[in-house]
Amino acid sequence: MPEYKAPIRDIKFVMQELLDCETHYQHLGYQDASIEMIDAILAEASKFTEQVIAPLNQIGDEQGCTWKDGAVTTPDGFKDAYQQYVDGGWPTLSQSEEFGGQGLPHSLNTTIGELLSSANHSFAMYPGLSHGALATLEAHGTDEQKQTFMPNLVEGRWTGTMCLTEPHCGTDLGMLRTKAEPNDDGSYSLTGTKIFISAGEHDLSENIIHIVIARLPGAPEGSKGISLFVVPKLAINEDGSVGENNGVSCGSIEHKMGINANATCVINFDGAKGYLIGAPNRGLHCMFTFMNAARLGVANEGVAAAEASFQGALAYAKDRLQMRSLSGVKNPDGPADAIIVHPDVRRMLLTQKSIAEGGRALNGYLSQLVDICHAEKDPEVRAVAESKLALLTPIAKAFLTETGLECTSHGVQVFGGHGFIKEWGMEQLMRDTKISCLYEGTTGVQALDLLARKVLGTQGEILKPFAQDITEFCQRNATDADMAEFIKPIMAYAAQLQEITGAVGKKAMANADEIGAASVDYLMFSGYFTLAYFWGQMAEKALEKLKASDDDKDFYQAKIKTARFYFQRILPRAQGHASCLANGADSMMALTEDEFAF
User: Fold this and answer.
1) Residue 545: which pLDDT band, with cuts at 50, 70 and 90?
2) What is the CB neighbour count within 10 angstroms for residue 485?
3) End-to-end CA distance of the chain
4) Distance (Å, rounded) from C-alpha 372 to C-alpha 368?
């Protein structure tokens, strides 16, 4: 099993140098978030994830969760590790002080989330979903709901879930059948079945708080008739203690491809008492608070997977002796050279490295936008941040999980046949990561959200704030000869994206299927381009540091070399997507349903 080490040097580069988190935090009023405090938190998080959480990763995969008579038992060590997580105050980090949190920035918590997910994807999911439940309650809950549920969720004594889909409806939530009948006391009685509920039942916390979508009597058909409810697994007594079962039960757990140590549950609601969140029939609107938080968390999982797989592959490539280098012997005292000398192994390692580090920069930026949305006093600045976040969230979620999965495949490949063997742990990373491409909206769903709803739905207006940032970056470096190799491609791809957007929009006016046919290629083109912009910024910062001092010279030179690899060997992939976009929907839609069988 690969030995996980938190990539603290690169995390500090992104947070402190690239994104200048100190200035960002001070402007937003996070006075306690000094560099000294951040360093201390990162150091403790590194120890916790490396020494407590990572060693449980393989155990969790081997044992999985067990279900008996509606109760779920997590693998050995998970319950103790979760209690250490709570005792360490990790659930409270970025939560409101009003409800027992530490009031630190969301972006700092995002970084801790990456470490947890790299160390142990399954474990990270148990507390991870509580953040979405908390965000939903804080944004849309009543004062009474906040006081009832949030303090224990913040503390980690209780955990949260999101109960959306049902056996028959998948992503089409407008088809849901779970019903909510009003009770005389103002509460509701929920009846129905939800599936694929991550961490829906377990033995880690005292209570589990479900955020559930259901339909009220007489509600409109489709998505316009969805309402949102908070439903505790165990009833809550007047004094705040937990009582009897609230009509919520786990009917079974799924036997899955990966994330075996996280219970994916069928949850039955049999007259369960719940409480309406927000206005009736406005559940879809409220739900997106949870969904957007979850999507950013899943983007983080893609980066975490790329990092974990890179670390395992790199260590193996330095140690494994196979064949001689084509350019001459590199290890004369051994029978063969380490495989890291071979160009194809370097191709895979650099792909992993460039995706992990580029994705970390993108996620760091997005998490700072969330900080702004939460704490910025200027409404115009908040509105711009919200616009950028709306544009980039589907790109980050889909692109970083698809490329993260690719990176785990490279990790298996670097090991060769040993990568296919469970004891090395590389195939587990690949199995665990595939789910990230699926939940919180598949890649295709994210692509439709980006192209149809965000870009074409706003007639391209949503692109302008982020495009302006890219323009200003290019203008700032226009005369810098050292930056030319990065600036020229960014400018060319920016112009190409504008042309592609116009062309797709024009085709879509005549045939709506053109949007669906173009959407994934459009998103992937956008993803490669967006990461190029962040790699350009990292190259700029590295060059600036090298000109100023010889301190940490090797780190900054490696950053520039990795940027160069990304621009020369990864960014050109976007042109394949551009060609597919130009070819339109005709060939995709030409076969009849019967002809697929031939």
Assistant:
1) very high
2) 15
3) 44
4) 6
